[in-house]
Amino acid sequence: MKCRNCIKVIILLIVTAILLLMSRVAVKQLREDCVAEKQFSEIKKQVSRNQEKDIVTELKKRNSDVIGYLDIPDTTISYPVMQTKDNPDYYLNHDIDKNYSFYGTPYLSAYCDLEKSDNLIIYGHNINGGRMFGALTQYRDESFYQKHKDIYFTTKNKDKYEIFAVISVNKNTFPYWRFVMAQDEADYDNFINKVKQYSIYDTSINPEYWDKLLTLSTCDNSRGNDVRYVIMGRKK
After folding, report:
1. What is the pTM of this model?
2. Which residue, 120, 88, 87, 125, is CA-closest to 106?
3. Pick from 147, 150, 163, 158: nearest CA to 195
């Protein structure tokens, strides 16, 4: 009996320790969430106050890694965009002030050149609850797309992109992330056709050679580690 009681006590202590550890992790995550949400909220307010000014120049004063600002009207997508070519995924887990962040900050692929690339690829986390680029999964619903067709990406100018495809695909099956610069018109058309094949629905928009592209990429948490949820637009 004593042995059985000892085992019960040990199990109880282990369970208690696990619960305490889980609660500490949860509290820490909640704090990080609050810090990240507050930071992005303050940036959004700064953007709204400086609509007539060059917001990218203003944000560069805070961090020279800022290369643009991304916005989809009437959604929660409204974020600075970073780029570090010497450390490609740095902002996967850092905020605009270079502090560690579970949220990270949307960032442009290190392989992209703002002036020269045919396709600008921006990565962001899919945070549960539709936060960060998790909000993009709303585009599964075509009716949502019909109300939110345009993406604005501000660098030197505020450029408008119209969404032409919404895809969920294994990154190895279709390595869309490799397409940055078209070799020629045939290469460009082949890529667009492939994107259209994978698109969840037909938008009836067909980019043509020399149309600049914008790609927003995040994890598709519902379909596995290698599956990506991707929104693609062409510059208008």
Report:
1. 0.83
2. 125
3. 163
Q: What is the pLDDT of residues 110-166, one digit of tens each?
A: 999 999 999 999 999 998 777 899 999 999 999 999 999 999 999 989 999 999 999
Tokens 């078209």 map to which residue? 182
Per-residue burial over 89-126, b if 16 or more Cβ lie within 10 Å, else e, is ebbeebbbeeeebebbbbbbbeebeeeebbbbbbbbbb
Within 13 Å and on the Cβ side, how many CA atoms surround 194? 13
pLDDT confidence of 45, banded at 50, 70, 90?
Answer: confident
Measure the CA angle with vertex 36, ends 30 and 41; round to 5°: 125
